[in-house]
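Batch job 17 of 40 flagged for manual review because the log was empty.
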Amino acid sequence: MKKRDLILCLVLLILFFLFQRLQYSASYARNLEKEIVIEGKLEVHHFDNFDAETSKDVYYLVTSNNERFLLDFVTKPPKVLTGTQIKVKGKIRNNQITVSSYSISSSLPAIATVKKVGVILFNFQNYMTQPLTPTQAKGIVFTNSNSVKSYYLENSFGQLILEGKYDANGDVFGWYTIPYDNVGCQYLTWFQAANAAANAAGVDLTGYNNLIYAFPSMGGCTFGGGGFLGGQISFVTNAALNFNVFIVGHELGHNFGAHHANSYLCTDSAGLPVPISNSCTSWEYGDPFDIMGGSIRHMNNFHKGQLSTFNALQPINTLTVTANGIYTIAPIEQASLGVQAIRIPRGSSYYYLEYRQPYGYDNFASNAPVVNGVSIRIAPPYPVITQSNLIDTIPSTTTRDDAPLLPGPTFYDPIYRITIRTLSVSPTSATVDIAFGGLTCTHSNPILSINPPSQTGYAGQTLNYALTITNTDTPICPASTFSISYNLPPVLSQSTSSSLVTINAGSSSTQTISITSAASAAFGSYSFSETVTNIGLPSYGASAAAYYDIGPVVAPQEIPDTTPPTITILNPLNNTILPNSGNVQISATATDSSGINNIKIYVDGVLKKTCNNTTTCNYNLNMNTITSGQHIITVTATDNSSAQNTGSVSITVIKP
């Protein structure tokens, strides 16, 4: 009986202690998650996953005592920069605050035209590889002719200079081995350990505007690089692959206050692609004309106009348009006293209109759409730190390289009833027509061009010219039928595939015209003209002229063609980062007066496709078969006289 009582007492005692423990745990949990109001500086940690085409921002509040709290916003987080003063209210648990409300006071960083930049290379105690030398890192960031430094000097109109504190030509420190394994993703701990190693080696890291950390393995990190938006720290993982001008320059761009250059993918109610609609998704890094997007090009005018970067655009360079009219835009690549950013209000955001010309890092081909049209983007006011979105005005193609609005077609936003037309382009400016209100049918003169504008042949030879007609009526207009007439000197005659052509509003059509010279024609240059007329509205028409130059009267075989064909690689562009999966179309054209015999496409020296007796060649490259790193796409063209030419572009593929 006593034994049973003893057991019963022990059971009751255990139950009592368990009850007390539960009470304590509940009380402890309540104390852990409590209401808090706290103030400090905001840190915005930005992470780029280029392979998955995704990114994320992580927010911290740092107090005056250097306590760091992870912030989880119940509502949308503020679109501001690191260093902004923030006051939050919410529930705290284990140094993480669930923010129910917040207030901020603007705190834009001072604009520095000279930035002290240091590069810190470190590795791990279990992974001590050094994938590049400090000299190579210095070249990429500071000293090479195509360095990050040279990029930002040009991009800022010569205002922003990157230099070292110890060496004006650039500071690179390391390699340092930190006392951690490359396990997990404790990047802040790793940076502190690298700083300690640099200090132990006698390096004073105070006084730097920006520090760039690079390490050889991604460890448990899923990002390829990152940076504090508007802050001092940027970082590159997997340095063997990612420490290059594009990624280092991209992450520094985040430090300078720029977010990503995206593009819009929009569909109509039937699911078909359209330039703009109520159903649009933002494609991360989808802008091919910006280092904050997919290539080493100038930042777009929204980024250049943000006060938080380097103030490249001045107030005089931005014009906000609210009235119908014709406006002029200067190219974005160099400093100008003209307008380089036209903004059209669209609700809480704007359309940003931009014009580019071949220059420096914007070394586009002269026939690239981006230098022959006006780029349109949607973005908020300059102080709002978020992505810009490029509008694809030709959404029927798979590339964004043809996104700009060329002369002729009309862009219309049916939601905000905004109409934009590019009227003309030149090396110094582009002219646009902007209208507000419902789209009406407006007829205008077509655009007519003849290519090539001049050719040389012998007496009796037939030469072919491409006659391109663009119907510039607004898109709501019905299709128009145009007649083709010509005016030739007596020694020339013409045949045309059709003397009538019907073209939809905003579209183009190309006809081949064949010009034959008389066998008795004398040497000389003969001008001829073509005229197109809208047969329904004869007051609308256009004319263009070209030349037929007659050389010595000899048989064709006596005039050897030694001029190689002209090659244009339309897609991809040079120095483009391509997706790591799916298909990418390689597209090239070739022209020659004698005609094209064949075009061949090679990838890294391996023949992929041969196209015979055509001026266009396309090949779908399976990106799943392409390894990480840099690759060369080569195109050769052979004309009918056996003359050959070669063109090539460099691409980069980034894989995990």
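Reviewer: the log was empty due to a logging misconfiguration, but the result itself is present. The first helix runs from residue 2 to 32. Unflagging and moving on to job 18.
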